[in-house]
Amino acid sequence: LRDHLGVSRNVIVQATCHGADNSAMVDAVQASGGRARGVATVRPDVTDAELRRLDEAGVRGVRFNFLKRLVSAAPQDDLAAIAKKIAPLGWHVVIYFEGAD
Prior knowledge:
The chain has 101 residues and is α/β, with parallel strands linked by helices. It has one domain (2-94). Helix content is 34%, strand content 21%. The chain has helices at residues 2-5, 23-31, 48-57, 76-86; strands spanning 10-13, 36-40, 59-65, 92-96. A four-stranded parallel β-sheet has the order 1-2-3-4. The radius of gyration is 14 Å and the shape is globular. The chain starts with a helix and ends in a 5-residue tail after the last strand. The model has no long low-confidence stretch (mean pLDDT 89).
């Protein structure tokens, strides 16, 4: 698709339905030959070793869902804890929310 559209690089964002199992997203990033980066979903108890593994695989951000139809509770507390963990890696945060919010 990337080649068909004439795009040289892209970002692959972890699908909500996979939760914190980032394996499919990581596989896709690694199959890109360095032309894609990933955005993961992680839990607050994610280890530094797992974050380093994701970073080495090409992940450069974390996604948070604030959509009531997708999550049972808004992850404000998780966001702060995870943001602190990913800061040394220089990753960004993606916040997914409804326009009305």
